[in-house]
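Please review the protein record below. Tell me whether the encoded fold seems credible here:
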Amino acid sequence: MGIMDDKGIIELYFERDENAVSETMKSYNGRLLRFAMHFLSDKRDAEECVNDTYVRAWDTIPPNRPDNFFAYLAALCRNAALDVIKKNTAQKRSAQLVELTQEMNECIPDNSNITDERSEELSECINGFLAELPKDKRAVFLGRYWYNESIADIAKRTGFSQSNVKTMLHRMRESLRAYIERKEGAL
């Protein structure tokens, strides 16, 4: 049996015939996979996205009766790809946030004893420390710990090498720790 035309495939969806999905796959799997790869760099993610597209088509036809079947599938595929991107970004951001928190914990002496009052004092110390930094170093520090930028992004934005950015951040964390210890010792 050859490839069915779009109207025939859509009729299968309206009849709730499971062959609708296999016919859709025969007609459009390659095109949808290439389309998904425009959004996603990982082939497995793209394949998952295309499979989600078939599920979404099954769930939305009927009641929808698309005039341009591929355009309809492409829109479903694009939305599935955006969902994958959001999920991947959230996971990456969560892992990066843990890393940044660990880096900043190195700066705070006795971080097991942080009360609201001490938190306010630490905030004032950090602001004082930042005010004393040269503008370029302050931009690196804020990029990393306020805006959650990656080392690579900071390097690109500032023109420093990634190695220089890492070294700068390490030294600034050590300096911040010493600054906080001095300020807390003066209290």
Remarks:
- DSSP finds eight helices and no strands in the chain.
- The domain at 6-91 is CATH 1.10.1740.10 (Rna Polymerase Sigma Factor; Chain: A).
- The chain has two domains: 6-91, 106-186.
